[in-house]
Automatic annotation (TrEMBL):
It is found in: Cell envelope. The keyword Transport applies. The keyword Signal applies. Coiled coil: none annotated. This is ABC transporter substrate-binding protein. Keywords: Signal, Transport. Belongs to the bacterial solute-binding protein 1 family. CDD domains: PBP2_UgpB. Gene3D superfamilies: Periplasmic binding protein-like II. One of its GO terms (cellular component) is cell envelope.
């Protein structure tokens, strides 16, 4: 593809330069022996022609412009802007404009609103749970098309990552920012509470015991945000599927399994800790739990590895930040985490030249060098194994060994439909419904099982409606 675009531009540029040089030689020849003034004239003419040809070159070489909508703020946005700037500097034939469009939900809604017009982007970052919707919408060109045409080698990509985005036998989007949820804990507070700072809790039971030990005078020792992603991950960590149809991967999901044993066990555990005042309920936003953790108000929390750079910076050495795996019930022997974060889609309503330029950019973003820098600047782990050989990543691991946890957790996850992640077109809505159910249970409005059953019925209903529309 790059060869195609570059080839066309270079051919045009080359032809213009050859013509310009021919004119210069011709005019210089015309000046002949006519002395200094004639030479000056010839030089002028030559320089005029060169100027004309430069203009022609720059007009002919006008870069292909592509817009990239993304949802990264803070450290992520800074890193994204750097990627785009560096790419533009090294690829003058393509210019990428990165535009922040709000959090994942918001940017996807903006994309939906842009459908039917060409006001949308060329390249779109969509969170993992938007995958099925993006495919069913038929508004994308699967990256598999470019991979095949370009014979792009996927072998160095993390299989656990491509597994998530391989739906319908092909890679529809290129993974970009990949994460999983980890435990963040305050090593100093652990020491003070008589807990082992080098041995974070691994099970639900150990987490509860640690949270109690860290609680003081009715002030909870931990906080967990009401984030549907955690429920999804805590299911996978018990190797439990979230929807039927092999987690929606074998056949289209028609039923939510939210109220199954894995869900009930998880929500009962969570509610018990809130009732015991071992875990604080600070609402849905992980920014609030992060702030409480960074301020030393709670000593354990859960969040994406994507928050790691920000967290380490926010704590600023006030205490030692420890990281651990996401806990699971002691009797759950298998499972693992699902790849979170987002991937990049090429929109199919843009001219072919722009789609190819978007693919060029994707390849750059997937390179070991860019992935290593991206990982160090954020906490997302690299999509390619080759990034681990990059010095910048190696140095960062030495300085911040916490960055290793999510990678180890990813590699420790067993491969199954549960850990590949659920697939459903109504996932964004389903996540909101789940968060409502968790709230109802934690606030005591409903028993955990009842809250989950009601939510599961709503999701199943949405799945039914959705499946009707995509038939
Ligand atoms: O915060 P991120 O980017 O790690 O994403 C978390 C979830 O996967 C979003 O659905």
């Amino acid at each position: 593809m790059k060869r195609f675009i570059l080839g066309r531009l270079r051919f045009r540029r080359g032809m213009i330069l050859v013509l310009a040089m021919f004119m210069v030689v011709l005019l210089a020849g015309c000046g002949g022996n006519s002395g200094a003034s004639s030479n000056t004239e010839a030089n002028k003419t030559s320089s005029n022609n060169a100027e004309t040809s430069d203009k022609a070159v720059s007009a002919a070489a006008a870069p292909v412009k592509i817009t990239w909508w993304h949802s990264m703020s803070g450290a992520g946005e800074k890193a994204i802007n750097k990627i785009a700037t560096d790419f533009n500097a090294s690829h003058p034939e393509i210019q990428v404009e990165a535009i922040y469009q709000g959090k994942y939900d918001e940017s996807l809604n903006k994309l939906k609103a842009s459908l039917g017009s060409d006001s949308g982007p060329d390249l779109m970052q969509v969170y993992e749970i938007g995958s099925k919707f993006m495919i069913d919408s038929k508004m994308i060109t699967p990256v598999q098309k470019f991979i095949d045409e370009d014979k792009f080698d996927l072998s160095s990509l993390e299989p656990n990552i491509t597994r998530y985005y391989t739906i319908g036998g092909q890679l529809n989007a290129m993974p970009f920012n990949t994460s999983n949820p980890i435990l963040y804990y305050n090593k100093d507070a652990f020491k003070a509470a008589g807990l082992d700072p080098e041995n974070p809790p691994k099970t639900f039971e150990e987490f509860e015991a640690a949270a109690k030990a860290l609680s003081k005078n009715g002030k909870p020792g931990a906080a967990i945000a009401i984030y549907g992603w955690f429920m999804e991950q805590l299911f996978a960590n018990q190797n439990a599927e979230y929807v039927n149809g092999g987690n929606g991967r074998d056949t289209a999901a028609t039923e939510s399994l939210l109220a199954s044993d894995a869900g009930v066990k998880t929500l009962e555990w969570w509610k018990k800790m809130v009732d015991e005042k071992a875990v604080a309920n600070l609402g849905r936003d992980t920014d609030d739990t992060d702030s409480a953790f960074a301020a030393g108000q709670v000593a354990m929390t859960l969040n994406s590895t994507a928050a790691l750079r920000k967290m380490v910076d926010a704590v600023g050495g006030k205490f030692q930040v420890g990281t651990g795996f996401l806990p699971r019930p002691a009797d759950a022997k298998e499972g693992g985490v699902v790849v979170g974060g987002a991937s990049l889609y090429i929109m199919n309503n843009k001219p072919e030249e722009q789609q190819k330029a978007a693919w060029e950019f994707i390849k750059y973003v997937a390179s070991p060098e860019v992935q290593a820098e991206w990982s160090v600047s954020t906490g997302y782990f690299p999509i390619t194994k080759a990034a681990y050989d990059q010095k910048v990543l190696k140095d960062n691991m030495v300085k911040y060994p916490q960055f290793q946890t999510a990678i180890d957790q990813l590699h420790a996850s067993s491969a199954s439909n549960a850990t590949s992640g659920a697939v459903m077109g109504v996932f964004p809505e389903a996540r909101q419904i789940v968060e409502g159910a968790i709230e109802e249970a934690l606030n005591g409005q409903k028993q955990p099982k009842k809250a989950l059953q009601d939510a599961a019925a709503q999701i199943t209903d949405k799945l039914k409606q959705y499946n009707e529309t995509v038939k």
